[in-house]
UniProtKB/TrEMBL annotation:
Function: In eubacteria ppGpp (guanosine 3'-diphosphate 5'-diphosphate) is a mediator of the stringent response that coordinates a variety of cellular activities in response to changes in nutritional abundance.
PROSITE patterns in the cross-refs: TGS (PS51880)
One cellular component (GO) term of this entry: plasma membrane
Pfam family, one: HD_4
PANTHER family noted in UniProt: GTP PYROPHOSPHOKINASE, GUANOSINE-3',5'-BIS DIPHOSPHATE 3'-PYROPHOSPHOHYDROLASE
Gene3D superfamilies reported for this sequence: 3.10.20.30, Beta Polymerase, domain 2, Hypothetical protein af1432
Protein family: Belongs to the relA/spoT family.
Cross-referenced InterPro entries: Beta-grasp_dom_sf, NT_sf, RelA/Spo_fam, RelA_SpoT, TGS, TGS-like, TGS_RelA/SpoT
Protein name: TGS domain-containing protein
């Protein structure tokens, strides 16, 4: 790869920066090239290509100069014997702090860096290593979200060349990517990056399954795309007739996501309604609902398959209208409707805020960002409360990195819980006192067992008493969240029940 060309690509992508900032960027580029001079990755490419690719991604999303500089320099401290003090003097304290944060996330390693040849052997089990990684990433997020964003992109680019890494390391790296990095990208709303991480890890975790599955996947998606083309023409004709400004595009479900969903349908691709979905992009919210009306005028919607994530967005910020309809020949198809801004949010999540300059007009403010992602604060709280690193890792994987359901309070507030959560988990997610006062629950207006499993979109009402009787020990058998487990154990210990 041509280093000068990669540098030029970065400058061109950064054309939204002012003249003074471009000069600073050029200075950083020259410094990074010199620092990594002579270094190679396992793939044989010059090492500097790696930080260039990360910086280019950030520039394409219009990130601030400091974040791009930190991306260019993120491995200089770790791999080039350059001090943080020198980085701070040359490029500023903010840049050096981000570089330090990214470097700290990489300290739990079998080697100093996957793609350098300096070996540092650390005798940790895979579980211990993952536990340490999770805790460090949570602390980093609570301090400066840019550290995690750089690390996620860093991981994605490293996964692209994982085939060049020694085979004995490939599974561990892919497992960590699937279990930690992809879920964090998902929680940050970075759907495109999450899918990329999952797809890249998939063939290393399930080698035999991947080889068989990918052939079936390509055949099924090709057939579905041909079918979608027919519907695309019919929808476009109707939209033009009704003078609605819209763009229609096909979205193919990611490889790994399809693999997971197919397991629920016994390998029947026909049952995966969103294998190839049509996406209608419009100008504003009102147009979203207008477009849905036109879709339902043309194709009959399936009852209980209409989802409004605009009026009730997902906790990660995702907004869209989803409807599943009977298309020609009674074939089922999902159609998604959203604005351009919603589409960017769905793909890039937290990174989209830089695109719209929400965090660059008045400078970067991590507290402001944390308010838009309340679970970061909650994770940081558990990080300080749970001393046992293994217990902490298990709680994070269950409470924050597992598959999610979204349930509602009677007032319409959304609660984001792990799949298989019970009304008890819901009660403690509202407040510990609600959990302590709980005597029963209603789900969708009907009395339900407090041990029952909640489903997506359930409306949950907790029945309480004015005189709390406290939780029972057997409640521990029905809960999923660490939050509920922590408060129940705390109560039982205090009152010796």
């Amino acid at each position: 790869m041509n280093i000068d060309q990669e540098a030029q690509n970065l400058i061109e992508l950064s054309n939204y920066l002012n003249e003074k900032e471009i000069l600073k960027l050029n200075k950083t580029i020259k410094y990074a090239i010199k620092a990594h001079q002579g270094q190679k990755r396992f793939s044989g490419d010059p090492y500097i290509i790696h930080p260039f690719k990360i910086a280019q991604y950030l520039a394409s999303k219009k990130f601030d100069l400091i974040t791009i500089q930190a991306a260019l320099l993120h491995d200089t401290y770790e791999d080039c014997d350059i001090s943080l003090n020198e980085i701070s003097k040359l490029f500023g304290k903010s840049v050096s702090q981000i570089v330090s944060g990214v470097s700290k996330l990489g300290e739990i390693r079998f080697r100093k860096n996957w793609f350098s040849n300096e070996e540092i052997i650390i005798k940790l089990t895979n579980f211990e290593r993952q536990s340490e990684t999770i805790k460090k990433m949570i602390l980093a997020m609570s301090k400066d979200i840019r550290v995690i964003i750089i690390k996620l992109i860093d991981r994605a680019h490293n996964m692209e060349t994982l085939q060049f890494v020694p085979k004995e390391k490939q599974y561990r790296i892919a497992k960590e990517t699937m279990d930690i990095f992809a879920p964090i990208a998902d929680r940050l709303g970075m759907g495109e990056l999450k899918s990329k991480l999952q797809n890249l890890a998939f063939p290393y975790l399930y080698r035999k399954e991947y080889t068989l599955f990918i052939k079936m996947y390509k055949k099924a998606t090709k057939n579905r795309e041909i079918y979608c083309l027919r519907i695309h023409k019919s929808l476009l004709k109707l939209i033009i007739k009704n003078k609605l400004n819209a763009k229609i595009e096909a979205r193919v479900k990611s490889v790994y996501s399809t693999y997971v969903k197919l397991n629920y349908y016994d390998g029947d691709f026909e049952k995966v309604s969103d294998l190839v979905a049509l996406r209608i992009i419009v100008d504003n919210e009102d147009a979203c609902y207008q477009a849905m009306g036109l879709v339902h005028k043309l194709y009959r919607p399936i009852p209980n398959k209409i989802k409004d994530y605009i009026s009730q967005s997902k906790p990660n910020g995702y907004q869209s209208l989803h409807t599943t309809v009977f298309g020609p020949n009674s074939q089922i198809l999902e159609i998604q409707i959203r604005t351009k801004e919603m589409d960017r949010q769905a793909k890039f999540g937290i990174a989209s805020h830089w695109y719209y300059k929400e965090y660059s007009k008045k400078g970067f403010n991590n507290r402001k960002i944390a308010k838009t992602i309340p679970w970061i604060k909650e994770m940081a709280k558990w990080s300080s409360m749970i001393e046992d690193i293994d217990e902490f890792s298990l709680s994070m994987k269950t409470d924050f990195f597992s598959d999610r359901i979204f349930v509602f309070t009677p007032k319409g507030d959304i609660k984001d819980l792990p799949i298989d959560s019970s009304p008890i988990d819901f009660a403690f997610s509202v407040h510990s006192e609600v959990g302590y006062s709980m005597i029963g629950a209603k789900v969708n207006g009907k009395i339900a067992q407090i041990s029952s499993k909640l489903n997506n979109s359930d409306i949950v009402e907790i029945l309480t008493t004015k005189k709390p009787i406290g939780p029972k020990r057997d409640w521990l058998n029905f809960i999923k969240t660490y939050n509920a487990r922590y408060h129940i154990k705390k109560y039982l210990k205090k009152y010796q029940r």
